[in-house]
Write a structure and sequence with these properties.
Chain A: This is tRNA (carboxymethyluridine(34)-5-O)-methyltransferase. Chain A: Belongs to the alkB family. Chain A: It catalyses: 5-(carboxymethyl)uridine(34) in tRNA + S-adenosyl-L-methionine = 5-(2-methoxy-2-oxoethyl)uridine(34) in tRNA + S-adenosyl-L-homocysteine. Chain A: Its main location: cytoplasm. Chain A: Keywords: Cytoplasm, Iron, Metal-binding, Methyltransferase, Multifunctional enzyme, Nucleus, RNA-binding, S-adenosyl-L-methionine, Transferase, Zinc. The structure holds 2 protein chains of 2 kinds. Helix content of chain A is about 20%, strand content about 25%. Chain A has 17 helices and 41 strands. In chain A, the strands form 12 sheets. A 7-stranded mixed β-sheet of chain A has the order 33-32-31-34-35-41-40, with helices on both faces. In chain A, strands 16-25-22-30-20-17 form a 6-stranded antiparallel β-sheet. In chain A, helix 11 runs parallel beside helix 13. The two termini of chain A are about 55 Å apart. Chain B is an alpha+beta fold. Chain B contains 5 helices and 4 strands; from the N terminus they run H-E-H-H-H-E-E-E-H. The interface between A and B is medium-sized, with 31 and 31 residues.
Chain lengths: ~800, ~120
């Protein structure tokens, strides 16, 4: 009798399938291949690209209603499902047979199919049978056919077309299998040109003209030694045109041999995975963004010979020339005076060009500051990051008169030289704007790639392909938008706003402690409540145990209940929760729990009324020992004689008995449950050891074990008024009092998969918040409890990076 | 906020101590929300309830008459238990105020959530 599985659920997804975890359960023994109207049957295990699922001939098949809902599938009378003519449905099976088909639906089998397995061969390996989930894919239509899953034409593919399709699919599979490149079945701006790569002797000179015939090429990336290239058109229509006309197109390679090109669409994200030294994330170069006429006009419009009295004007033979519009940029503090905008704003010609760019989507925001720089050969600008607090994220720079090589450098040391052609627009956003420095070396010649001509992109490090390019006079128009509020980017270590933030210091008085808690606990939780709650979903077993062991009808208070995680654990209890954060209490309310807002040092519950209390991960947020004891006192006050309290606080020792806590163990790519303790940090971990002048940052990489603290108590390094260090997530603690970063995700849980990258860009993470913690040493919590006269400690233990105490009121 | 919860709440305004109980309830929006009846659970709750406070609160809300004190043998009196179940668990105050009887300080109830936070000045030593 087969096991009953979970109820059938049908998910329609229009996205590219993630690597298949499902396996094909094919109870039937016959398969039908339908491609272009021809039917043939084959036994199990045949490696066909047109396989589809057969269901058993039995009623009540759970799959049937699911399949009926798919427009592409029609059910035949004998219970076999055949796909419609131009959309072949593939059941979930080995990846290489499917390439990258578009996932249409996914369904769980119910018991009618559970336990069934296909017998036979190459296609099926029982060890990969998991959960009986089947995924249905739609393949790409052949070139020339509208790629629409609802397309129901009776188009039959000719022989050559079928052959082409086969080859195209093969190319797709090869790309996936060998290069890890995933192609997609819907049109995008980017195409992989298989067989058109430097690796198979196809040069840029040969390929580019062919590609340019189909539309405006935004960029052509030809990775060295690869048998493919990646081309990005400015519009999807042009890309589609290329796809339609160039697939199967014959070109001649360097050796005079005939080559056939096969094109497939790729998502933008693929650019990064081409194994190239990628452009700094967030960076793009848009070539030929203005015409030669406009270039001339802009260059002529700049009046360099103004009065020397005019503050805009700066002349020096040794140094580049600069002019400012909108706001004046001060080089002494590298900032603008936001209160003193320059009269006149931006020049009119610029305004119209900016409007054009906005409309075309080249830029997202309208700048209000312009700096014009003129570089003669030999001039440069030292490597720098544009001051965070001065300007918003998007910074764009138009290069006129001459091309130049600009160097981008990451704090790790990686340098990427980027060619900026004439009339191109450099767009810096995200990491490239906030983290990487950019600069121009003062010299008269740049080293550029010989074969690429003057196209933009990274200058190769292939020595044989380099040549010198004499510099000309380059004028840059850098457009920026002035910030009106402090910067709260995700790169705090290089952010002047965040570094200037009155550094939190170890509190000396109760008042200071209150303020510290206000700024670094209460305010933060209010801001991050939603996201925080989404990472607090799994109740910890020992706490559940404690609650479940309480007698039925007990009155229990959860002081510092957060999102109410524990309020519904034991239905036999009457649990009320309270928290300082209104937003978190709101979430408790959404879950129908009884909760209210209050301070844990003054809990508005009558004394002696509770049978039990819990305080989970709360007391470590109090900034002085006195306040921590006061919080414990409150807990005890609420208890009736004989009542019990369970207290959890974060431990200084994140490794105990040679075992690392979950907090340390979880790597940054894991999600969900793994976000439990703390969320991930991205660049910060790397940065800590690299950046100089960053004050007393902890670069913690060795794990302090329990043995380090055997000399009685922790070495609390904090002297009054010393700065609180900012902790590096997922490393061990080096100070008992510290600030722990929280990287806020604006839409928690909404879309856990990778967001589409901008071309060569990366998704910019959200703002960072710091929370204050006092982490406890072994014995510290116990000792604090012992100071209370009317209790006895029942249990004291360590649980996943926390010190825990169960006490009882006598 | 259910009446059972209200029964536990007490004012923590400085210096007020036990005179801060019970909080005077004023409700502008009340909702009846059915809850599964568990006689055992209610029976265990009864001794923990401060009866006078409950009477006062139930009165303010014009609820069905609550007995002046628990009936003898209430543990087995289903009618009584059901009545108490209703009063304690099924009546929710969504909007209103709680007032400290000693100091007069008002605490708002909004969306069923009482906000008992005192301001910085009020908590200053």
């Amino acid at each position: 009798m087969p096991r009953v599985l979970a109820a059938t659920s049908l998910l329609f997804k229009g996205i590219r399938a993630s690597p298949l975890r499902s396996w094909w359960v094919a109870p039937g023994r016959r398969y039908s291949r339908e491609l272009g109207g021809r039917r043939s049957s084959a036994g199990p295990g045949v490696r066909l690209s047109g396989l589809h699922l057969c269901s058993p001939k039995r009623s009540g098949c759970a799959l049937r209603p699911a399949l009926d809902e798919l427009p592409q599938i029609r059910c035949t009378h004998n219970g076999y499902y055949t796909p419609s003519k131009d959309n072949v449905i593939f059941a979930g099976t080995e990846r290489r047979h499917l390439g990258n088909q578009r996932l249409l639906a996914e369904t769980d089998f119910s018991e009618s199919l559970a336990g069934e397995r296909a017998c036979g061969s190459a296609v099926h390996r029982p060890s990969r049978l998991m959960g009986n989930v089947v995924q249905f894919f739609s393949n790409m239509a052949a070139p020339g056919i509208v790629m629409d899953s609802n397309h129901q034409s009776n188009y039959k593919l000719s022989k050559t077309e079928k052959k082409l399709l086969r080859k195209q699919i093969k190319a797709r599979h090869t790309l996936l299998r060998h290069e890890g490149i995933e192609t997609v079945s819907y049109a995008t701006q980017s195409l992989i040109v298989a067989n058109g790569g430097l690796g198979n002797q196809v040069s840029r000179n040969q390929l580019l003209p062919v590609l340019e015939k189909c539309g405006l090429v935004d960029a052509l990336l030809m990775p060295p030694n690869k048998p493919y290239s990646c081309v990005r058109y400015t519009t999807v229509e042009e890309s589609k045109k290329a796809y339609d006309t160039l697939n199967g197109r014959e070109i001649v390679d360097d050796l005079g041999q005939k080559i056939i090109l096969y094109l497939n669409f790729v998502e933008k994200a693929q650019w990064k995975e081409l194994g190239l030294q990628a452009l700094p994330p967030g960076l793009k170069v848009i070539e030929e963004i203005i015409s030669s006429e406009d270039e001339k006009m802009l260059l002529e419009s700049v009046n360099w010979t103004e009065d020397t009295d005019n503050q805009n004007f700066q002349k020096s033979l040794k140094h580049r020339r600069v002019k400012h519009f909108g706001y004046e940029f001060h080089y002494d503090n590298n900032n603008v005076d936001k209160d003193k905008p320059l009269p006149g704003g931006l020049p009119d010609i610029c305004e119209s060009i900016l409007e054009k760019w906005l409309k075309a989507g080249f830029i997202k925001h309208k700048p209000d500051q312009l700096t014009i720089n003129q570089y003669e050969p030999g001039h440069g600008i030292p490597a720098h990051i544009d001051t965070h607090s001065a300007f918003e994220d998007e910074i764009v720079s138009l290069s006129l008169g001459s091309e130049i090589v600009m160097d981008f450098k990451h704090p790790d040391g990686m340098t990427v030289p980027v060619m900026l052609p004439r009339r191109s627009l450099l767009v810096m956003t995200g990491e490239s704007r906030y983290l990487w420095t950019h600069g121009i070396t003062p010299r008269k010649f740049d080293t550029v790639q010989a074969s690429k001509g003057h196209k933009s992109g990274i200058i190769t490090s292939d020595v044989e392909d380099l040549t010198l390019n004499k510099r000309g006079i380059r004028t840059s128009f850098t457009f920026r938008k002035v910030r009106q509020t402090p910067c709260n980017c995700s790169y705090p270590l290089v952010c002047d706003s965040q570094m200037k933030e009155a550094p939190a210091s170890f509190p000396e008085s109760d008042k200071e402690a209150l303020q510290l808690e206000q700024d670094y606990v209460h305010r933060v939780y209010e801001e991050i409540a939603r996201h925080f709650s989404s990472t607090r979903h799994t109740p910890w077993p020992h706490i559940v145990e404690f609650l479940k062991a309480l007698p039925s009808g007990s009155l229990v208070a959860d002081i510092g209940c957060g999102n109410g995680k524990y309020l519904g654990i034991n239905k036999e209890l009457y649990m009320i929760g309270c928290d300082h954060s209104q937003n978190l209490v709101d979430i408790c309310r959404e879950r129908q729990y009884q909760a209210f807002v209050c301070d844990a040092l003054a809990v508005p519950i009558r004394s002696g009324s509770c049978d039990a209390c819990i305080s989970i991960a709360v007391i470590h947020h109090f900034a002085t020992a006195e306040r921590r004891v006061a919080a414990l006192q409150e807990l005890v006050r609420l208890l009736r004689p004989g009542g019990k309290a369970l207290i959890y606080v974060w431990a200084m020792e994140q490794e105990y008995n040679k075992k690392k806590s979950k907090y340390l163990r979880e790597n940054r790519t894991s999600q969900g449950l793994k976000e439990e303790i703390n969320n991930d940090t991205s660049v910060q971990e790397l940065l800590v050891k690299q950046l100089p002048n960053v004050g007393n940052q902890d670069s913690a990489h060795s794990v302090s074990s329990i043995n380090d603290f055997q000399d009685g108590g922790c070495n609390s390094r904090n002297v009054a008024n010393s700065k609180l260090p900012i902790h590096t997530n997922r490393t061990s603690f080096h100070s008992q009092d510290l600030l722990v970063p929280w990287h806020l995700k604006e839409n928690p849980g909404k879309d856990k998969r990778v967001e589409p990258f901008g071309p060569l860009g990366s998704r910019d993470p959200g703002p960072v918040f710091h929370r204050y913690y006092h982490v406890f040493c072994e014995g510290e919590l116990e000792a604090a409890c012992q100071t209370l006269s009317n209790i006895s400690i029942l249990q004291s233990y360590y649980d996943q990076g926390n010190w825990c105490v169960i006490l009882q009121k006598v | 906020m259910r009446l059972l919860t209200h029964n536990l709440l007490s004012s923590h305004v400085r210096g007020v101590g036990p005179r801060g109980f019970p909080l005077r309830l004023q409700a502008t929006e009340v909702r009846i929300h059915p809850v599964e009846f568990n006689p055992d659970f209610i029976a265990r709750m009864i001794p923990k309830v401060e009866w006078a406070a409950l009477l006062e609160a139930a009165d303010t809300l014009h609820l069905v008459e609550v007995p002046k004190e628990p009936i003898q043998g209430y543990e087995h009196n289903e009618e009584f238990l059901r009545k108490m179940h209703h009063v304690l668990l099924e009546v929710e105050v969504l909007e209103g105020t709680l007032q400290c009887p000693e100091s007069g300080r008002l605490f708002p109830i909004s969306r069923g959530i009482p906000n008992m936070l005192l301001s910085d000045e009020e908590t200053e030593t």
